[in-house]
Design brief:
This protein is mainly alpha-helical. It is 43% helix and 2% strand. The protein binds iron/sulfur cluster. The site of iron/sulfur cluster has 13 residues, from loops. It catalyses: [thioredoxin]-disulfide + 2 reduced [2Fe-2S]-[ferredoxin] + 2 H(+) = [thioredoxin]-dithiol + 2 oxidized [2Fe-2S]-[ferredoxin].
């Protein structure tokens, strides 16, 4: 190997060393380094227990959209019942918890076009909807049957009930 060939060889070995040892590949101009999972939520969500599903002062809606329009509410009720069936999950033994969550989903569907999980706090609900990670059924539910709202409970859950149907009167009783 002559000197003319040695210099490019050494340069390429040096570049390889930098890449392997430091794990660093400079981003192309204008290209940003990844900030994690592409579908990760834009804000760090904060768990809100179903019993505390309340409207914030900044989003007091009209009476019509307060708990989802009648059609949306019915659609969410049917969705929840069907989803229980196909995933072998059940509503909580306290059906009012399921009813509260379903009403929260319907409200988000009416206001943002998708049933964003109602049991979390979001900095920007519209942005979260577009990411779709927390659109019901959320990714944790679809991947691991984990529903922190306690809407869909597996048979081994200590709070599980026996119902896969959500009665209209229970739905009508709860307020969100
Ligand atoms: S499945 Fe996910 S999005 Fe739907 S209610 Fe449960 S936790 Fe919320």
């Amino acid at each position: 190997m002559n000197v003319d060939m040695l210099i490019p060889k050494l340069l390429s070995l040096l570049l390889l060393w930098v890449t392997i040892v430091r794990g660093f590949i400079p981003p192309a101009p204008g290209q940003q380094k990844s900030q994690g999972h592409p579908k990760a939520p834009v804000s760090r969500p904060v768990l809100v227990p179903p019993s505390e599903l309340v409207l914030s002062a900044t989003e007091v809606p009209s009476e019509a959209s307060k708990a989802g329009s009648a059609g949306t509410l019915k659609a969410m009720q049917k969705f929840a019942e069907k989803y229980c069936e196909i995933t072998d999950t059940y509503f909580c033994s306290d059906l009012e918890i399921a009813a509260t969550v379903v009403k929260g989903l319907a409200k988000h569907k009416d206001e943002y076009g998708a049933p964003l999980c109602p049991c979390r706090h979001y900095e920007d609900k519209a942005a979260e909807v577009s990411i779709a990670y927390w659109n019901c059924p959320c990714v944790p539910m679809r991947e691991r049957k984990e529903c922190h709202c306690m809407l869909f409970l597996t048979p081994d859950n200590p709070f599980v009930g026996k119902e896969q149907k959500l009665p209209d009167d229970v739905l009508a009783k709860v307020q969100v």
